[in-house]
């Protein structure tokens, strides 16, 4: 599947989008679209994500409202615990942890704006509406409802990153703790006004200071056009940001076995045989959206090769 993405990429580069569509296999047409849009993007618009969120990720599907989410990748462990919100009747309600593609898009937006403005305070007004339009997301209806739910989950949950250090160096693990990703804000209004009035996003968000400090130290650049093409797939977004972080740090060919991939990305799949074909389909989309990525798929593992980042880092 990754090989198909590479073949599609070459077709687009050599022949252009329209001819590539006629030459490509019918099953690869979605990859042609992704590769064409990303390769044809001249806006230079960037997104950013904290490196810890490139190695670990949120759930793909909705967990129980009282369930914590724990993922461990190498020395890094991410723990997300659900928070509570007081409802109109005065009773606290568990909100559950954030999940799915929309939660990832909200986090990417918040992190991107924080990096670009070098400020913990992020606007949810016009800039977010414009960003959503670039992604092709409607402001109202079901999208608005989903964004509200995921925003509340992000705002109320607690998140902790734990980095296990070598005992010979410190004798104990180190931990960065964020009791909240969001210090305040991110509760979208319930108004029904139209996009011009901007009733959905008239708010400002203050990021947690620890999270913001780590984001400033370890921002991973992403291509806005790639995010736009992958916006509906939590799995493809996860793989894309992972590759964006990993590939340009490599100095040699690096194989990764299916068991490790299942542990990192397969939280929604109990069995490896269920996970593998879905991962390969999402990997193909991620590679199509990352033209510089060099990834090979073999029977027992995938192979990552040193590759340029999808977009240049901050100076």
TrEMBL record:
<dbReference type="InterPro" id="IPR006881">
    <property type="entry name" value="RepA_C"/>
</dbReference>
<protein>
    <submittedName>
        <fullName>Pirin</fullName>
    </submittedName>
</protein>
<dbReference type="Pfam" id="PF04796">
    <property type="entry name" value="RepA_C"/>
</dbReference>
């Amino acid at each position: 599947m990754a090989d198909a993405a590479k073949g599609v990429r070459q077709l687009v580069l050599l022949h252009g989008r329209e001819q590539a569509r006629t030459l490509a296999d019918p099953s690869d047409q979605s990859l042609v679209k992704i590769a064409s849009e990303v390769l044809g993007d001249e806006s230079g618009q960037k997104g950013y994500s904290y490196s810890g969120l490139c190695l670990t990720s949120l759930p793909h599907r909705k967990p129980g409202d009282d369930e914590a989410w724990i993922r461990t990748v190498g020395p890094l462990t991410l723990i997300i615990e659900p928070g509570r919100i007081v409802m109109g009747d005065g009773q606290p309600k568990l909100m559950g942890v954030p999940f799915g593609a929309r939660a990832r898009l909200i986090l990417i937006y918040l992190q991107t704006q924080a990096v670009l403005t070098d400020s913990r305070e992020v606007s949810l007004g016009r800039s977010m509406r414009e960003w959503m339009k670039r992604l092709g997301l409607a402001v109202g209806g079901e999208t608005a409802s989903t964004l509200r739910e995921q925003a509340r989950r992000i705002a109320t949950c607690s998140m902790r990153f734990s980095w296990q250090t070598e005992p010979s160096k410190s004798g104990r693990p180190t931990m960065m703790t964020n009791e909240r990703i969001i210090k305040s804000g991110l509760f979208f209004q319930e108004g029904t006004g139209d996009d011009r009035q901007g009733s959905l996003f008239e708010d400002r968000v203050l990021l947690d200071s620890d999270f913001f400090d780590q984001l400033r130290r370890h921002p991973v650049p992403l291509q806005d056009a790639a995010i736009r093409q992958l916006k509906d797939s939590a799995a493809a977004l996860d793989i894309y940001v992972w590759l964006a972080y990993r590939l340009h740090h490599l100095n040699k060919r690096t194989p990764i076995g299916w068991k490790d991939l299942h542990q990192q990305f397969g939280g929604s799949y109990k069995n490896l045989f269920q996970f593998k074909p879905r991962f390969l389909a999402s990997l193909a989309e991620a590679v199509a959206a990352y033209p510089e990525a060099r990834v090979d798929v073999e029977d027992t593992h995938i192979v990552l090769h040193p590759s340029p980042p999808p977009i240049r880092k901050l100076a």
